[in-house]
Write a structure and sequence with these properties.
Strand content: 35-45%
Helix content: 10-25%
Structural class: alpha+beta
Order of helices and strands: EHEHEEEHEEEEEHEHEEEHEEE
Radius of gyration: 18 Å
Distance between the termini: 24 Å
CATH architecture of the domain at 4-82 and 239-303: Roll
CATH superfamily of the domain at 4-82 and 239-303: 2,3-Dihydroxybiphenyl 1,2-Dioxygenase, domain 1
Oligomer: single chain
CATH topology of the domain at 4-82 and 239-303: 2,3-Dihydroxybiphenyl 1,2-Dioxygenase, domain 1
Number of strands: 17
């Protein structure tokens, strides 16, 4: 039923709006401002768990395209950290992957401006070929992965290509995202080849992990789902609110939001917020809605409906 593309953007709750904005614009090259909104008030009680709230936000893209980063600074109520420090495998959106032309070279050149937390490593995975990767953290501790490899498109500048999401049951989540969220292509099938290679960001020795990479044939960002076997991934904190500091959502784009909403009703997909009109441009009405995946992770669906 789903008709649209893959990952459109990631939502990140921030504490220091200007520092995070500068890092993503100046250091990672998200220099295209898609939209900036200041002092927004919204009636989304279901998403925010409260009726009074205001926030600032900006949506940033890279010249090479790829996934947009949406930075959200909650003004009211005062946000809190979702966790003191995020780890690989935490349930929820837990990493942003940026493709570079050469991981080793990028690691050396960016050492003074990016907080790397591992050394570059190389792996060969069926479906991806040989690739090199290294992990880092943004100024507020959110996990970043920089990657290059045979199967990745080569751009002159970094390009955000996929989001990582930690889940509790990999097969269940693969089924959900393929059936209901349009990830119709399996780029990397379920495997355990990263086991032992992510200790530096999981916080444990001998980490066992299963993961896979999904995509949409129409394009958009890819989705990497991972399930930690040992240790198990930490659950989403019970009192976490949308807008708290950290990665808060993944968003996909669809062609017909209202038809998709009817399908979700038929399929009894869990709603977080029903279709809502955000704002208008000269050519279109911009709409959004939220559902929950099997682990309760917020998934936003966005759509531009042309004006007649």
């Amino acid at each position: 039923m789903y008709s649209g593309s893959g990952v459109h953007h990631i939502g990140v709750g921030v504490d220091d709006y200007n520092t995070m904005k500068s890092f993503y614009q100046d250091t990672l090259g998200f220099e295209n401002v898609w939209e900036e909104f200041l002092g927004v008030e919204s009636p989304m009680e279901d998403v925010f768990r409260g009726s009074s709230h205001r926030f600032d936000g900006i949506m940033l893209g890279q010249p090479a395209g790829g996934i947009i980063v949406e930075l959200i600074r909650m003004i009211e109520p005062r946000p809190r950290p979702i966790r003191n420090l995020s780890r690989y495998g935490d349930i929820g959106v837990n990493k942003l992957t940026v493709a570079v032309s050469d991981t080793e070279l990028f690691f050396r050149q960016a050492a003074k401006t990016i907080n790397f937390c591992t050394e570059p490593q190389t792996i060969t995975v069926q479906g991806m070929g040989t690739c090199s990767f290294v992990y880092a953290r943004d100024p507020e501790g959110n996990l970043l992965e920089f990657i290059s490899g045979d199967a990745l498109p080569v751009h002159e500048r970094p390009c955000c290509c996929r989001l990582g999401v930690g889940v509790t049951d990999l097969e269940r989540s693969v089924s959900f995202y393929r059936k209901h969220v349009g990830f119709d292509s399996v780029i990397v099938d379920i495997n355990e080849q990263y086991s032992g290679l992510v200790d530096g960001i999981s916080g444990f020795s001998g980490t066992q992990v299963r993961c896979c990479v999904l995509a949409n044939e129409k394009g958009g960002g890819m989705l990497e789902l991972c399930e930690l076997l040992a240790p198990r991934g930490r659950s989403i904190p019970f009192n976490a609110h949308w807008g708290d500091f950290g990665c808060i959502e993944l968003a996909v784009e669809c062609d017909d939001l209202h038809a998709l909403a009817r399908y979700y009703d038929e399929q009894e997909v869990e709603w977080l917020h029903r279709p809502c009109r955000a704002f208008d441009t000269a050519e279109a009405e911009l709409w959004f809605m939220y559902i929950r995946d099997p682990d309760g992770i917020p998934v936003e669906i966005v759509s531009a409906i042309p004006k007649i």
